[in-house]
Each structure stands twice: as structure tokens, then as C-alpha cells.
């Protein structure tokens, strides 16, 4: 990450380097600076605020806070670790506290790596930009010294510099108020300003050393001020804004992001020509959602999963603008949309452009991995893992890169098949002689080709297609199964993922889809045919209390009506699961109406005797509030889970009374995972929106992290047990 900082254990006296934070060159490389700030007395505000010194002096590096602003929203503070290192680089530029850096020194400071290494800050231009992807808009950064009370938003830098300069000129070396308990803003009624500073549109009044107010000099405010003064309100509290010098929290080096132990490449599908920045926005949504889930469920782990967007489409030229030139002008807008989205599928099935698409994605994946490892040398040393999340057509291209599949191989297989068929039929002596000659010639040709390849290989060693092994391959809204079926893959009789994706290439394949996504298809029935009648695994809602681990969830039939049920009606209704407790929610088949669910709930409520309200709440509610059912589930423990796993007329595989699944093989690992449908959304509307609904889903974020943190979680649990 660049600059390292170190604190010296000085005494923090008046003349020590505490005020300006002395700079010392560090041997650790990176930005080449270290902060030797004198150890300061830990005096904090009652509210856990920043420490205060007895005497007014220049702000220490830990009191200044740097901010960034994205999408013209409010300023967001950098974490302490980032802010200190930016401030350090800023001071190295020769800025001190005097405003702009000195000329000619801009080249001396390297950019500072921030926000878990995803961005860099150029202090000289006060801008931030992403490291791994291109972004047209630069992100402005700002140095905060004076802050608005309550929101702790920074004052604009120019005003802030003027106020700071004035404050130091007037009060440097003066004693601050001793009483820290009186920090709750005392009314400053009738207290006249001891010092004032006029700014362009505002003015600042000092009522004491640490009671500073900003007043707007706009006309409306003047009227408001005279009115409030006549009514007897104090001048300061009525229209002024209280200002604080130095940030509410002291920046420390301990406030740093955890180490990245797992990177996830997020690969887009079709249509990125239309909106090049979309995959960057989608990945940002997925990253933010995953951060929330990490904080809630995985905060005990000292590692971290990073998401990187793989934008492979915009660099490709393909046919130039030939397709555009042959597009009729009528309904141009719709045509353009189809050209820039659905057209990718046509390009992919074209032998001319397919290789360009594959190469585009492959090079981008390798570029990102190499760049990440060069910036994080410990990642490979510590056995960092790589997963890929692909969407839509991106799944097919990623699969083909991993397996090395190409249409030429398919063509060769077809030719071989034709030759075998030729051998079987009767033919004349002349035909046979010519065929033998053809075989011998082909054999000779192959040998010459192999020798030639051998010579080439000795000079140019072919690099592996991908520079990393893929741990998990998550497909979202994926048409991969259709592509595989059209390539001639048929179900086998072993329950192994190797049938479609060998474990040596990728440890785990997981296929996620929304039930109404029109582009998504199931993969399991391509491995074992009878899985077409077994429902996909339901993905847990993110706020489910104590969800059953996915590997313990028993398969259940897709169409319970076809199978004899061993449960009576009243019993089956009474086991209607609540979203907050159930390991498997029976998959509603699409003919089912909302009234049926309502009827089942009412019957269930009557038979359990818990009252309608509780039943409906637990049936439809998504909250993790503890209902009576949750408590009961807790008492039942594992036994209750087993009961619930075989809900409403869905016998588990082993106990199948029909004999349909008795002799068959089961999958080693489940592959198809389905998002739970919302109870209120319209099926037609969700068919339109579901294909892009994956990015911001908390359920999916939890699902991805559950599989990526699996080993870390197991190791932590094991070490905790060992300790006990």
C-alpha cells in the first residue's frame, strides 16, 4: 500500500515535533515517507471525540481528515489509515499548513494508495482515480481542517485555510479552556465576539478560543438575524453554525482495512457496448452489499473479499460499424439497443469474431490478476484465492476460456464420427483402397504437424490460458446450460461436476438464478437427468435466523402433486415454514395463486392455535424478529430442522415411496441455486427486471461470501474449539 507511518515516543512538549509531524525517509519503499509524530497525551472528549491540547498549536496530521466525493454526493471521510498517509504526502509536497504545495515538487510524491488499494490519490491535483479500471470522471479529494457541528462535514478548503490562518495568528500559544465537561455547547447569549473574520459570503466570529461560529451574510439570513435578535434569541445560536477545529475522530494507523485473502472477478454479459460503465457500477453495488454482509456476519475474520470489475467489451472493434450501416432507419432506437446488446450473442456464435471475444476477456482477466499481484505481493505467498462471478453470456465465455473449448474441436469430433460411420457400411474394393490411402495420408499429415508444433513449442512455451486457478465459478442468470446442450452434452450417470467442468480446472461451480429470469437455465439436469424433477436449492434470505447450511439441505421434488404424499393434509399445513426459520421453502409452482397460500396460512394458524396474526407474520415477514415459531425451532434444534427439510408433501430422496429416486445417484454437490421470489411482485414485471436484479441483492451477497469464507470460517471455528 505504499507509505508506512511510525510514531516516535516523544514527550509531546511545546517545542517537540508534535505540531507538524516530522518527516523521515523510510526504507520500506512505496511513498517513501514515515510520520514520526510525537506521542500526544490521550485527552478525549466525553463523546469519544478527538484529543485536545492545552495550548493552541498547528493541527497534527492525525487531526486533519481527508475526504472524497463520488457522483456529486456528500463528502465521505477516508479511513484513518488512508487519511494519515494522504496528509503525509501533502506535507511532503511542502504544503505544511500554508495552502498550496510549492512549485516543482509535484513530481516528488508518489500517488497514495487508498480504499483497500482500489484507488489512488494524486495529492498535487487533489484527485482520486481507480487503479484497476478506467473511469472518465475523476473523484475530487479535499483536506478537512474545520468542520460543521453535528454533520462533521468539512468546510470548503479555501475558507478552511483562511479561518485556520486567522485562528493561528490570533490564538497560537493561548491556553484552551480547562473544563472538558462543559463541552456541551453553552449558550453564548449576549457574549460578544472577541475576534471576527470576513469571508466572501460569510463571516466567522470567535466568542472564545474554542467557540467559533460561522454566519452567512446572505440577505435572507440578515433579515432572519434581526428578527431573531428582536425576539431575544442569542446572536450566536440563532443563525450561526458552530465550527470545530480538527476532526471528531483522531486518525490512527490501526484504522486500516483487513488484508485481501480472496479476489472476485466480476464478468459482464451482453450489452456493455451500450453502457460501458455499467459493469463498474454493478460491481460497486455488489461490493457495497458484500461489505454490509461482511460487517454483519463475518466481522470476526481478519480477512476480506475484494470485487474487481472485468470490462472486456469496449476495447473490441469486431466489425467496426458494418452492422450499423446495414441497419434500417425505422425504429432506430430499438434497433440500436438490440445491436449493442443481443448482437453480442450473434458475434459469439460467429467463427470470425468468437476468438476476439474470448481473447478480449482472457487478456483482461490476466491483466487484472497480474496487476493485483504486483501491488499485493503477499497475496500469492499467503495462498490467496480467486473466484469468478459471471453474468449472462459472460458465463459462457468464461467457461470456454477455463475449459479451452472451441468450435474447431467440435468439428473434428463430427468428422471422426463420419469416418467411423463410413467404416461400418459396405463399399467396393476401389473405394476401400482410396479410403485407406486417405487414412495413411491423414496420419502422415498429423505426424508432420506434431513435429512442427514440437519445434515451435521448444522456442515458444505456451503460457497457461489463465494465470490462476479458479476456486469458485458463480454463474448468474446464465444461458450456459443451453449452449452446452446444443454442443451435444447429455446427462451421464455419475453425480460429479467433472461431467461439465473438471474439478482440476475449477473447484466448485454454482449456478444462481431468479425463478423468472428469461435468460437463465439449470445445469444439474445436464449431469443427472432425474434432477429435472428435483427443485433447485433455495437461497436463504440474508436475515434468516440460523439458516441450515446448504450442504445439509435435502433435495426435494419439484412437483409434489405427481408424488404420493405420506403426510395428511392437516399435518402438511402445520409444517408450513416461516422464512425466518425454514431451511427449505417449498417452491411454489407457477400455477399457484396467492389465495391458496392465504388459505394454507389460515388453516395452519387454526391447527397450530397460534392466532392468525402470528402465522401470517411468520409466513410472509422477512424480518429476523423472533416469532413463537422461531423459539420453537430453537428448542427443536437439529431434530426440528430435519422435520422441516421434508415439508409439504415433499419426501426426502432416501425415503421416496414411489421408488422413482431410490436406485439413482445423487450429485456430489448441488449446483443450481434459486433466489426466493417476492410474494408481491408481478411475475411478468419480474421477468423483465430479474435478469439484472442480482447485483444489489443482499441474499446473493451472503450466498457468495458463505462459499468464499467457508474455509476461513471452518479454521476460525476449529481454532476456537482448540482454545476451549
UniProtKB/TrEMBL annotation:
Give every DDHD domain span. 466-710
Q: Which InterPro entries match?
A: DDHD_dom, PA-PLA1
Q: Which domain of life is it from?
A: Eukaryota
Q: One GO molecular-function annotation for this sequence?
A: phospholipase activity
Query: What Pfam families does its record include?
Result: DDHD (PF02862)
Point to the regions of Low complexity compositional bias: 22-40
Its name, as the record gives it, is DDHD1 Phospholipase
Organism of provenance: Halcyon senegalensis
- As recorded in Swiss-Prot or TrEMBL, the protein's gene is named Ddhd1
